[in-house]
Amino acid sequence: MRQLFFTMLLLLVIQAPFAQQRTYCNPVNIDYGYTPIPNFSEWGRHRATADPVIVNYKGDYFLFSTNQWGYWWSSDMLNWKFISKKFLRPWNGGVYDELCAPAVGIIGDTMLVFGSTYTSTFTIWMSTNPKANEWKPLIDSFSLGGWDPSFFTDDDGRLYMYNGSSNKFPMYGIELNRKTMSPIGYRKEMYLLEPWRYGWQRFGEDMDNTFLDPFIEGSHMTKHDGKYYLQYGAPGTEFSGYADGVIVGEHPLGPFAPQSDPLSFKLGGFVRGAGHGATFEDNDKKFWHVSTVVLSVKNNFERRLGIWPTGFDKDGVMWCNTAFGDYPTYLPGTANAGGFTGWMLLNYKTPVQVSSTLGGYHANNAVDEVMKTYWSAATGNKGEWIQADLENISTVNAIQINYADQDVDDDRLGKRTDQFHQYKVYYSADGKKWSVLTDKSNNKTDVPHDYIELNQPVKARYIKLENIHMPTGKFAISGLRVFGNGGGAKPDKVKQFIVLRTEKDKRSAYMKWSPVNNAYAYNIYYGTDPEKLYNCIMVHDVNEYWFKGMDSQKTYYYTIEAINENGISEKLPVMKVE
Asked: Considering 485, 514, 534, which residue would you say is the last residue of a domain?
């Protein structure tokens, strides 16, 4: 009896961190597959996915994305279980390109899945039990192919499909017969990009590249309060300004009017880019938006996923909150679902020590808040380590460990379900006496962006991550991120903030402000209504910024706040910019 009691107690202790976790942190921590297209791996094997769709089906969340040879499901939007499934039939081909930019729809109690294609040989799959991987063909050869498709079932049961991925042609929409999946009428043009007006739609990392016209892609429809919100991705998946826009109408096939600014937009911070995604509801009827996150190191199409709180205001404007979108955020089902925890980043550009260094992959790359850069140890052996100095005794609430791909084995091509990470994290007040913060030495799951919320916060100055097992390649870290509170003063309020809009091109503006000595970053909020500053740009280190993403025909409003390890300053009064 005593042995049974202690066994049960041990199980409770082991399970407690997961049972009580209330938060998540982008990028989404799933077992991303390795890029399965050989010509895209010229700089080395690496993980990637994009073009996500999440649907709430019978109270669980199902996530589909590009080239993963399967899909995930979760009951809490934190722990995702992968289900292996090849959706391409033998006559479809697709040895490497498996289910690209999938459409996922719900008709009654049935889930539909369909991949991008310009042919008429792709299958539409159906399931009433996707958790058990039970699928069968609904239509063997769907005659209405298209790239980046999406399905939408209206309240009256009518079914629509949207598609389009081009820098020449618009996004299209059409009604389908829900029994035969044959078209009803002809497809209609939904929207073509207008970069001459909307600066954020311009191609290029800085929205000023004239080499290519911008791409419209990634359609997704959401209905709310009788209005139809058709979302789309632009201008290019490899840029920090990759975003989802939205057009609004009174009918599923329009006409539509664009909202001036992007729906989901994340120009700065550790996670950047928020394009080609989908909106879904949680079990409490709160909206969320999942989208593609830009990495683009090994090649332009190296990407991750992010999830952001989303909603609609009293005037029917659709918004998505990405401010602090790569900091700990409350999960669905919690009291403040979608809200920022207030746990600040404690180790931005603080001192780092490491066990070894490979070439130019320096230690400080792990704390610079740039996911594109990373530190790599000389090996992937057990015992390699990295140690961050928070510089002050701080309250630590959570940590995030972001692995990078360095010297991945050549046999990694496509999806791997047999690999895992193992590590230990220690904390110390003086760098001499160490205690275990979290022990994952027996972990058997693949956790490329592992996030751990502590049951109880700890006081620490030093955090040390020690490798035990890598699934492949070197022990490499793009971000060892520590969250909590530094225990000091919040940053001072920003002074002398100016926004100079150019007369020649009203899409662009130059911003400058007096630097705040005790701040490491700033949030710039903006919008076309002083009460609706829904978009945010996070800027580190500097005190100026060129922004080229405005609607040339609208008046804008701006404010700014300063950020440090202790909190956030008061915002400035909202400024009008004509």
From this structure: 485
SS3 92: helix
> Is 206 in the same domain as 293?
yes
CA neighbor of 203 nearest in space, from 247, 236, 180, 176: 236
**Of 18 and 189, more confident:** 189
Report if residue 338 sits inside a domain.
Answer: no
Report the length, in residues, of the chain.
Answer: 578
**Whether 370 contacts 340, CB under 8 Å:** no
Q: Do both 234 and 285 map to the same domain?
A: yes
Measured CA to CA, the distance from residue 364 to residue 388 in angstroms comes to 10
Q: What is the count of structural domains for the chain? A: 3
Q: Which strand (E) or helix (H) includes residue 243?
A: strand 243-249
3-state helix, strand and coil shares in percent for the chain, rounded to the nearest 5: 5, 45, 50
Identify whether the C-beta of residue 210 lies closer than 8 Å to the C-beta of residue 231: no
Q: Please spell the DSSP secondary structure of 391-454, one letter per residue.
A: EEEEEEEEEEEEE---S--TT--B--SS---EEEEEEESSSSS-EEEEEETT--S--TEEEEEE
Q: Which among 445, 465, 485 is the end of a domain?
A: 485
Residue 471 domain boundaries? 344-485
Whether 567 maps to a domain, the answer reads yes
* Residues 157, 47 within the same domain: yes
Give the 3-state secondary structure of residue 12. helix
- What percent of the chain lies above the pLDDT cut of 70? 94
Q: What is the mean pLDDT of residues 507-536?
A: 98
DSSP annotation of 363 reads G
**Structural tokens at position 112:** 């539909």
Q: 313 lies in a domain?
A: yes
Helices and strands: H and E segment counts in the chain: 1, 38
Q: Tell me: the pLDDT tens digits for 394-423?
A: 999 999 999 999 999 988 888 899 999 999
Six-digit token string for 50: 């994009």
SS3 200: helix
Whether residues 97 and 134 share a domain: the answer is yes
CA distance 541 to 219: 36
Q: With 0-12 CB in 10 A as exposed, 13-18 as middle and 19+ as buried, what is 527?
A: buried
